[in-house]
Amino acid sequence: MIETRLLHYFLAVAREQNITKAAQTLFISQSTLSKQMMDLEKQLGTQLFIRGKRKVTLTEDGVFFRSRAREIMKLLENTETALHTDTKNLNGDIFIGCGETVAMDSIAGLMAEFHQQYPDVKFHTYSGDADAVIERIDKGLCDMGLLLGPVRQEKYDYLNLHQKDIYGLLMPADCRLAAQDTINIDQLKSLPMILADQTFYGHQDLDWFGEDALNVVATYNLIYNATFLVEHGIGYALCFDRLVNTNGRRLIFRPISPELSVGLYIVTKKYQVFSPAAREFYERLKESSRQARANSLSDPSAI
């Protein structure tokens, strides 16, 4: 089993790209560090470094190992912080993965209230598509994820936020469809479409569009770069309302009719063991969910 000390040494060398400089930052001798890295390569059975006269660079295996070493060290740091947290005076870190959704606005409001009560708690957000967020949850690098869907797999728990994101079409402001207040779903079938990658990974519902296949000319994982494809006339992007600020740009957003929408969920690993800070914040999310559900029952049009 690899000692965490060796991971720390390896990451220092990878960062400094020089054995001597890395040894200085670690306060050990150059010869000791050099031997430790050779022993690590022997233990792993692969070469991690290409050693030049003045610089060391990572091999392909070295790049892979650096990624894993960072994850391991971060997980150890998070665990140590959680174990030292005083539940009466919460501190530590909460890691949240987030898909692209305006629901992050309400989550940020809860975070602000929580931070006001527990100023020593730090929030860390990671933005990515569903697969990237799920991967970080699986590895223990995120306590929870804010996702659309939900991604129905038995190894996860899902907290329904009783909110929804509404689909629409992002288009050039000077196109003929911009004169319409809404875009009929059947009109999409005749357009060059730019869709999110996750549409094809089972996270969204292509059955909305019937048996006729859409003309997909491009895909995206986060909407920002797709906006430039739309501005340059490559296609029309199917995306969520309020994600793109069209002010000052040659873009306009129109909702789909009849409405296309998806629910929003907080996803966690089943039997997740939270740090005290993450557990308390998750309870706040549950309470917010209960309030949103009560509001939706009294006013069904709100959801």
TrEMBL record:
Keywords: DNA-binding, Transcription, Transcription regulation. GO terms for molecular function: DNA binding; DNA-binding transcription factor activity. Residues 2-59 form the HTH lysR-type domain. The keyword Iron does not apply. It comes from the Bacteria. Gene3D superfamilies: 3.40.190.290, Winged helix-like DNA-binding domain superfamily/Winged helix DNA-binding domain. GO terms for cellular component: cytosol. Belongs to the LysR transcriptional regulatory family. This is LysR family transcriptional regulator. It comes from Candidatus Eubacterium avistercoris.
